[in-house]
Amino acid sequence: MADADTQAVLDKRFLAGEITTLYIPEILDGVVELKSRKDKITALRNNASYALMTFFKHVFDRSISFQLTGPEVRDVEFKGNPDMVDFDLADATLNQRYQIFNIFTVNNTPIDKQIKVLEAWFTTFHPQETELVCQMFERKLKYKGITEALIREAYPSLMEPKE
Questions:
Q1: 94-133: per-residue pLDDT in tens?
Q2: DSSP per residue over the chain, as a string?
Q3: Do residues 120 and 85 touch, judged by C-beta distance below 8 A?
Q4: Which of 40, 56, 73, 134 has its CA at a distance of 20 to 30 angstroms from the CA of residue 147?
Q5: What does the domain layout of the chain look like in residue ranges?
């Protein structure tokens, strides 16, 4: 645990988006710790990436539908064999990993291929990222204070306006 002065510097750098090697769970953990809505929005905007915005879009945009359900995703065995898919997720960048979300929303992708992608994907992800993917399919983000309303305010053009 960092001392108070070090933590204050890290908090300031996080708010400013100067820490660029954060994974999505680390960003979400940092946003949850912030007290004001304004600071949360600032941190979300300053730490925006293709991966983060794609993740939020898939969690909160109801125009996107999945073929697999949350329980089906949680039931995937995490055996791990990257050879089961056509690309090696271990060597993929974070943004490339999140680009494959469209596999789960295209109706012509067979369910068995989707499950194989998940099996390979989960072997390359940190357990917190795997949990986030499960939450995405369940459409229930379990981070206090990170709501659809907050994400819509932070990224106004990310999703179609709510009707």
A1: 555 555 666 676 666 788 888 887 887 777 777 888 888 8
A2: ---HHHHHHHHHHHHTT------HHHHHHHHHH--SHHHHHHHHHHT--HHHHHHHHHHH-TT---SS-HHHHHTS-----GGGSSS-GGGS-HHHHHHGGGGGT-TTS-HHHHHHHHHHHHHHS-HHHHHHHHHHHHT---STT--HHHHHHHSTTSSPPP-
A3: yes
A4: 73
A5: 4-58+143-154, 64-138
